Amino acid sequence: MDHKTTLQEAFNETSVQLAGHGKRDAGVLKKAFVDIEDTLSSDMYGEGKVISDFEAEMAEVLGKETAVFFPSGTMAQQIALRIWCDRKELKTVAYHPLSHLEIHEQDGLKELHHIRTVLLADKDRLITLDDVKNMETNIACLLLELPQREIGGQLPEYDELEAISAYCRKQGIILHLDGARLFEVLPYYGKTAAEVCSLFDSVYISVYKGIGGIAGAVLAGSRDFTAESKIWKRRHGGDLISLYPYIIPARHYFRQRVDKMGQYYEEAMELAVLFNSCAKVSTLPEVPVSNMFHVRFALPAEAVEPLLIKLYEETGVGLTGRLKNTGDQSCSFELSTGDLYGSIPKDKVKAAFALLDKLMQEAQH
Amino acid sequence: MDHKTTLQEAFNETSVQLAGHGKRDAGVLKKAFVDIEDTLSSDMYGEGKVISDFEAEMAEVLGKETAVFFPSGTMAQQIALRIWCDRKELKTVAYHPLSHLEIHEQDGLKELHHIRTVLLADKDRLITLDDVKNMETNIACLLLELPQREIGGQLPEYDELEAISAYCRKQGIILHLDGARLFEVLPYYGKTAAEVCSLFDSVYISVYKGIGGIAGAVLAGSRDFTAESKIWKRRHGGDLISLYPYIIPARHYFRQRVDKMGQYYEEAMELAVLFNSCAKVSTLPEVPVSNMFHVRFALPAEAVEPLLIKLYEETGVGLTGRLKNTGDQSCSFELSTGDLYGSIPKDKVKAAFALLDKLMQEAQH
After folding, report:
1. Residues 139..198 of B with a Cβ closer than 8 Å to A: which?
2. Do the beta carbons of residue B185 and residue B290 sit within 8 Å?
């Protein structure tokens, strides 16, 4: 009958958490609908005020002619790449080896669209202008993810990004932005969303990462591009009779949080300093360029888990519910700052990091 | 500045409507969430209590091993057919010429899955056992829609259905049920959902037709079949981080309405008698076998619209917002009974049909 407390269980019992906006629960939906009248009409298969107003707002923010709301980024991005491949009559695209399309979508791009992929750059670094220039295969479209999530949310410098964009335009290569966390990188770049998007032919953004909606995505581009994307949305089974249960929260939390991205970014930098001050702990990148980074321990998960459980139980501060082994003697987790961190008393944070440092110092290699 | 009132505008102004459960508005969502605690955890990419409990409930109702919740029937059915084609190593399926897959999905089945289709039967009648027996092409799977929506919701007699099922099993043809309106036909058949589904290898149901949820679908079958469907759900971009905004209403309205299907069916029969008593008006089928039927006018839409507008304005009773021309001298609309009809005072209904009969009698051919 003995039950050893798991990391996730101990995390669930913490009174405060460093990352995110709070639990993903029905309250997220209910809060977004508090001020919505019962009489607000549903959208109907992509038409109607509730969807077209939000699409117009997003097109404006992203500096594109038009935008389309999708149930998911998986759907939106496969469709974007399919359209560009069809137009170029070339079913090959390039992206990072750890792109969402490559590792999280059960190969939908290949299985449904029969698009070949070129994996640019090594897994542990960003795509550079040289990678693009030295590509030996002809491609219809290059997908860049800003920030590159799976390597801690790293970013190319803005002039490198501009150079890649200019090169692609010259070469007739379409450039698509995986902007799942686009708003989160704007404070570092010191640019508007529209300025960054102007470097790209098409753009996808998520409404539930930093924005904290429930689910959904927006695909933006020229009028003919988004019109074509609606046909594919129907084909994929994404042209739902009603998408308002996602659109209303997307709008609500976008307006509430889009101006907080600078705060989240600064708090991520502050937190990274705290992690890097602890023994056998480091962050990737060392200095965050968005609200996210990876926390790395120079010990395997099996060794770190009991320490974190102790930390959670003694301080009530939760860091993560999951650790991923990244080698024989290392593990890591992803952290994205949101509404929660700013509300934790500073002395509570300080005490947690003091204990983390102590526990890691004492830990056996 | 003159504006001629359209049929849709006049319909929107009516105080009562014969069809449906009421307006598709935010109230549908808010009512379903009234008793839901803020702390209810979201599902996460197809996992978690809120989704797995509902899937288990639906599997039980449909008499199948397992069930999977999908954002749409378009997605669920393409995936079902793809799985069966892959297993049979034969990319050909058969369905009715007016199947949803053939006319409402922008050819997703062909464009995404490269599945060939055999159109069985004429457009204006049901698929029969003879149609299946006389097929000249080998197929992996036959899709039957119960009721056949685009021809007024007609149904094969139950023994014909059993014979088709037995024939398919003998021939090694997979049988898939498009049960978008499955619960609506159970009173006519006098069968449980599980009894009807036992004739099929896989089953799709919608949660927003007669049930009146917001959006979504359930695909049910054997454990290995639904497990494979989840991989394709991810590929299609339908494995959303949170589907609870559709699942909670689906569960709420399923429980509220599944036992009312008999009432809706009887009211549809009652309404069909009233329509058939009017000059130049008939229903298809003449005697409904579910909660739905088509209303046909022996005049073009241009002639009927002003009469209906007059009817709506004088009686406050709304029949439809749209008419579809079905020939030079005929038009029609689809009607499905729901919660609304039973709440209209009988004398109001009577007055509306008396005026409809009078207006149609006076109308010029």
Report:
1. none
2. yes
